[in-house]
Amino acid sequence: MSLAVLFAASLSMQGPIDLNPVIWRTYKAGSYSSAETFKTVEMVTSGDFQTYARKFRPEGAGDAHDIDWGKEELVAVHLGTRNTGGFSVDVMSADHVSPTEVRVKFVEKTPPKSRTTTQALTSPWVIIRMNRPSARITFHGAKLENWVGGGQLVGVPNDNDSCGCCSACHTYGIPLPWDVYSYGNNSGALLPATTVIDGPEDLQDFARQNGVGRPDTRVRLDWSRDRLIAINLGSRMISGMRLAVDTVRVTRKGVTDVRLFEVRPGQLIEQLNNNQESPFIIVRVPRTGYKVSVTKVQVAAGQPLPYTYCDCDCGSCHNCRHRGE
Q1: pLDDT tens digits for 79-103?
Q2: Edge-to-edge, what's the strand order for the sheet holding 136-144?
Q3: How many CA atoms lie within 13 A of 203 on its CB side?
Q4: What is the pTM of this model?
Q5: Which residues contact 304 (CB under 8 A, 6 or more apart)?
Q6: Does the N-terminal or the C-terminal CB of the chain have fewer CB atoms within 10 Å?
Q7: What is the distance in angstroms between the CA of the first residue and the CA of the last residue of the chain?
């Protein structure tokens, strides 16, 4: 069989080749515009963009002076009005689904219900820039609920560090670096709650609403890499309770799980507290995963804390090398 025949056969197995691929990237995005309902806009000239900017007033969209309108175009997706902050929209792909149709896939990301968000009307939007596809553009949307932001793992073990031979590897996932940002018994939270803090404004809002004092400015946070997770136990009538972190791990489902101990006072020192303590702890972790969960283990004071460790003693995986972290 000739090389030409083999090449043709390989192409047929791979399917049709897009001779005019869509080259695109995110251009601008924001949380505020005048769009009250879902809208999509295709802009192929500078005049189109100016008309769009006047009508929808996307905050931070600029003037599109860097667009080569002879070769490029802009496509905008607006979600419409949302009652709080924390919502966003991202374009995931823009591909030919036929010679005459380009499909833009986008996702609406909604904040966790437990997260403190800006109590103001928002209208999230995103604009992508692409080469002129010479095809009709259609849109397909999806929703990702309980989104907490995130990104790539930064300086943490990868999946190869888990040998998979023991319960720690199978059950708890990959360990993440963490440290305690703040803790105490004087939170103003009346009910148990977990709050994801993704920036300085979130931190100031949390401190103000929970009465935990001003943020510790001595601890430097890189908000492009770091995230804070605040866990409140709520108001308790018993004094002497505290929280201690066991591990922070990212599961194979992309969930960042904080496993901690709720240490209760022993019977001899257990007593009613007229001042009502409200224990809390704030943990710094990498910005990763699409969801945060908290696993609590109750332990009586005076008992050894049952830290998670590897039970296979293979010595080769991260769990074995960091026993008790």
Answers
A1: 999 998 888 898 888 888 898 999 9
A2: 88-98, 101-109, 136-144
A3: 20
A4: 0.49
A5: none
A6: N
A7: 61
